[in-house]
Amino acid sequence: MITTRRAGPEDAAEIVRLRRLMFAAMKGRDAAGPWEREAERIAREQLAAADPVLGAFVVDGAPGQGPSHLAACAVGRLEERLPAPGHPTGRFGFVFNVSTDERYRGRGYARATTEALLGWFAERGVTRVDLHATPDAEALYRSLGFAEHSLALSLDVSRRPVGP
Predict the structure, then answer these.
(1) CA 54 to CA 95: how far, in whole Å?
(2) 121 three-class SS
(3) Rounded CA gap, 12 and 14, in Å?
(4) I want to staple 112 with a disulfide (CB 3.0 to 4.6 A). Which of 2, 22, 74, 118 is the partner?
(5) Residues 6+ apart with CB under 8 A from 133
(6) What residues form the membrane-spanning segments (predicted)?
(7) CA distance linking residue 59 with residue 70, whole number of Å
(8) How far does the chain reach from its first CA to its final CA, in angstroms?
């Protein structure tokens, strides 16, 4: 049996470490940088909130495998939008970080943490959860019931002029 638990602020650094591993696996290269400090600060702050909008579920790493660490995590955010006919609460979830340390892959930890996160969303009245799947993870998400629902479009506005 896999034991998952809700992450607390003390897990922020390890969640960021796993996030970095996720990006390295997705992009084929490691990308350390100042983003890690800011991600840890935000995770610590949001995981400590009395009414959190950041949900994170983890599996602890095995003792004897080095310093205390996490084996896996699933992290998502509760978003509140205007209600709509199919979404009367206006609550949506977005999963943006599912990662398993290489030492623990193939044991069902990604599934277990993602299922715990989906339960957390359901308890909060979320009616739809979105995510972006890598080709390697698509089968897992489809087995949990995820399916295409629309064409996602994105725009990087970081270089867009600010103001009117």
Answers:
(1) 10
(2) helix
(3) 6
(4) 2
(5) 141, 146
(6) none
(7) 6
(8) 56
* Helix (H) / strand (E) containing 80: strand 70-80
Structure tokens at 6: 């809700």
Q: What is the amino acid identity at position 27?
A: K
Residue with tokens 């983890």: 58
* pTM tops 0.85: yes
Topology of domain 5-143 in CATH is: Aminopeptidase (3.40.630)
Tell me which residue has tokens 């600060």. 41
**Cα 122 to Cα 110: distance, rounded to the nearest angstrom:** 18
Give pLDDT tens digits along the chain (164 positions).
899 999 999 999 999 999 999 998 888 777 788 999 999 999 999 999 999 999 999 999 998 887 899 999 999 999 999 999 999 999 999 999 999 999 999 999 999 999 999 999 999 999 999 999 988 999 999 999 999 988 888 899 998 888 87
